[in-house]
Amino acid sequence: MSIEAGSKLEGKVTGITHFGAFVELPGGSTGLVHISEVADNYVKDINEFLKVGDEVTVKVVNVEKDGKIGLSIRKAQDRPERSERPERPANSERPNRPYQQRSNRPQGGSRGGGQRQNQSRPSTLSFEDKMSRFLKDSEERISTLKRQTESKRGGRGARRG
């Protein structure tokens, strides 16, 4: 009997390891059910789900050229179809959240001189504009953090006592 990906077969658990279980398939070949393919939920200890000698229904996930057979118990189980997710509302239906300035940012008076520009921004910025604004804000925050850290250490080149 040839084993093809997608087929469901009955098999017998012949060995259990920390990473999965070996299942003997009809025709004498053996495949591996990885621990992530045992159940739909997280499996910490495979011994809680399987024992050597258990008869299981498996689905063939893949058959590699070197003869290794990947199996899944959870994909072999018949489950009712999941209902489709509801459609996301269009942009016009979503609440409009204008850009708001964060209150913990330093206001004006930074080393470069000059005041910050007006923070009211149009909501139709391109991706590139948003990225450049993010990079600018990020660099400002990093330089502020560095200045604060240096002042706590006594500046550069300070002797440690």
From TrEMBL:
<feature type="compositionally biased region" description="Basic and acidic residues">
    <location>
        <begin position="127"/>
        <end position="153"/>
    </location>
</feature>
<dbReference type="InterPro" id="IPR050437">
    <property type="entry name" value="Ribos_protein_bS1-like"/>
</dbReference>
<feature type="domain" description="S1 motif">
    <location>
        <begin position="6"/>
        <end position="74"/>
    </location>
</feature>
<dbReference type="GO" id="GO:0003735">
    <property type="term" value="F:structural constituent of ribosome"/>
</dbReference>
<dbReference type="Pfam" id="PF00575">
    <property type="entry name" value="S1"/>
</dbReference>
<dbReference type="InterPro" id="IPR012340">
    <property type="entry name" value="NA-bd_OB-fold"/>
</dbReference>
<feature type="compositionally biased region" description="Low complexity">
    <location>
        <begin position="97"/>
        <end position="108"/>
    </location>
</feature>
<dbReference type="GO" id="GO:0003729">
    <property type="term" value="F:mRNA binding"/>
</dbReference>
<protein>
    <submittedName>
        <fullName>RNA binding protein</fullName>
    </submittedName>
</protein>
<dbReference type="InterPro" id="IPR003029">
    <property type="entry name" value="S1_domain"/>
</dbReference>
<feature type="region of interest" description="Disordered">
    <location>
        <begin position="70"/>
        <end position="161"/>
    </location>
</feature>
<dbReference type="GO" id="GO:0006412">
    <property type="term" value="P:translation"/>
</dbReference>
<feature type="compositionally biased region" description="Basic and acidic residues">
    <location>
        <begin position="75"/>
        <end position="96"/>
    </location>
</feature>
